[in-house]
């Protein structure tokens, strides 16, 4: 035991005589053990082989994974040449999406959407490359909880290394987390808050169990010779917070007097995503495309992906190469890569020019969802109806 009783003064404010005769007696016997840092100091944690850097509380205990095992020579990706077809939308689709857009805005007049005449439709379809790297990271921290009869197994065996502890099988590309109690690290400590008493002196009555009567201010009398009815003339009243006991159950150990101290291992699965969208000159801002999907041209998932080859757009090829290099460097340092996935989408963008009331206007229809962007809609207030 790391605990040594250095104090022989049981003077922790437990002055209520009723308290000592409670159920506390049996396990106490000797004066309450106190660590040398005083009752509020954190418990001292043992050093566990393989877990030396572990600290109490969040933040610490980060564990780099063992060396990653990259494949010796990358297998050649299949030189499959998919047929890159460019989807285009019809005038009817454009008009329908535009009408839906106008009606979704409560104040917009539907007239431009209904009566506008399309004069030109131009495709600015673009590619989006997406790389996902699904990683696992592990960290440890010392934890404690009220002792409830769990097995005490610290030092009975060498604990398994943090990366050798089996965790649940994760669902690829989905963030999740699991907390595991590391075997052979559990030990028992006296509660540091109540120094193993299970109870704490009541702050409200300073441990006395009663207080000066607030009605008669301790005199026992009111208005001359009238006996105080509130305290029946005692001059003191029972403390309501501790029901006159002078002490309350210790919240740290929940009255159990002892704490189970052990190492928790947190396993975290994270999907790290990077997007690259090829610049296009339609005038539609790039961020609009975050909300839509495109036609999937490539989907490739494996332990470690290889840069795409033979794709017609060289911007995509070089972005893939760069992102794959970045991800594999960054994520293999702080975590373990479990799986990667790369996708290429072709996002349809159509710029529609139309005439309404003798003037030319434009809107965009984009994504598989036929989303519309019309920042300069000519009739944004239906009150101005013609
Ligand atoms: Zn009174
Ligand atoms: Zn009290
Ligand atoms: Zn306690």
UniProtKB/TrEMBL annotation:
It comes from the Eukaryota. CDD domains: DnaJ_zf. InterPro entries: HSP_DnaJ_Cys-rich_dom, SSUH2_homolog. One of its GO terms (molecular function) is heat shock protein binding. Residues 25-87 are annotated as: Disordered. Residues 63-80 have a biased composition (Pro residues). This is Protein SSUH2 homolog.
């Amino acid at each position: 035991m790391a605990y040594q009783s250095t104090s022989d003064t049981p003077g922790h404010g437990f002055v209520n005589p009723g308290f000592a005769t409670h159920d506390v007696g049996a396990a106490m016997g000797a004066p309450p053990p106190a660590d040398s840092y005083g009752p509020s100091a954190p418990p001292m944690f043992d050093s566990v082989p393989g877990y030396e850097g572990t600290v109490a509380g969040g933040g610490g205990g980060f564990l780099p994974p063992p060396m990653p095992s990259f494949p010796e020579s990358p297998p050649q990706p299949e030189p499959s040449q998919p047929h890159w077809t460019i989807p285009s939308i019809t005038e009817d689709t454009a008009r329908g999406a535009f009408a839906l857009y106008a009606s979704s805005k409560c104040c917009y007049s539907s007239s431009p959407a209904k009566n506008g005449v399309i004069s030109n439709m131009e495709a600015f379809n673009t590619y989006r490359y997406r790389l996902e790297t699904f990683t696992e990271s592990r960290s440890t921290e010392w934890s404690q909880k009220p002792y409830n009869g769990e097995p005490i197994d610290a030092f009975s065996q060498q604990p398994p290394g943090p990366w050798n502890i089996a965790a649940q099988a994760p669902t690829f590309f989905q963030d999740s987390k699991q907390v595991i109690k590391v075997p052979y690290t559990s030990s028992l400590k006296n509660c540091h808050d109540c120094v193993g008493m299970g109870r704490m002196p009541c702050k409200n009555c300073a441990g006395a169990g009663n207080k000066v009567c607030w009605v008669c201010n301790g005199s026992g009398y009111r208005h001359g010779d009238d006996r105080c009815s509130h305290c029946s003339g005692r001059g003191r009243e029972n403390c309501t917070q501790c029901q006159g006991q002078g002490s309350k159950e210790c919240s740290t150990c929940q009255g159990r007097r002892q704490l189970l101290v052990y190492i928790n291992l947190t396993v975290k699965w994270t999907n790290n995503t990077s997007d690259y969208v090829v610049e296009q000159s339609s005038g539609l801002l790039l961020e609009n495309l975050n909300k839509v999907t495109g036609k999937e041209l490539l989907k490739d998932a494996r332990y470690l992906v290889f840069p795409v080859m033979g794709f017609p757009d060289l911007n995509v090829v070089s972005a893939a190469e760069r992102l794959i290099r970045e991800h594999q460097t960054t994520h293999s340092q702080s975590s373990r890569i479990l799986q990667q996935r790369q996708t290429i989408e072709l996002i349809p963008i159509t710029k529609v020019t139309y005439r309404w009331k003798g003037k030319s206007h434009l809107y965009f229809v984009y994504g598989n969802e036929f989303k519309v962007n019309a920042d300069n809609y000519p009739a944004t207030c239906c009150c101005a109806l013609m």
